[in-house]
Amino acid sequence: MGEMIDKIKGNVNEAIGKAKQNSTNPETQADGAAQEAKGKAQQLGGSVKGALGDKV
Predict the structure, then answer these.
(1) Residues 6+ positions from 14 with CB-CB distance below 8 Å
(2) Each residue of 9-52: pLDDT tens digit?
(3) Whole-prediction pTM
(4) DSSP annotation of 41
(5) Where is the composition biased (Low complexity) (predicted)?
(6) Interior angle at CA 40, CA 6 and CA 13, nearest 5
(7) 22 exposed, middle or buried (CB, 10 Å; 0-12, 13-18, 19+)?
């Protein structure tokens, strides 16, 4: 179950990050890039949990 939650959170963070990168404010763009990277990391964590059977 943790796998699915991490993947969903990752997708949400990635989508919000991509939207922020379309801003005209450079600070918001940088924040968006960081949030997108966080989302990708969460998705990876979910995949690892899935492979190890949520024992992580």
Answers:
(1) 35, 36, 39, 40, 43
(2) 999 999 999 999 999 999 999 999 999 999 999 999 988 888 88
(3) 0.82
(4) H
(5) 29-46
(6) 70
(7) exposed
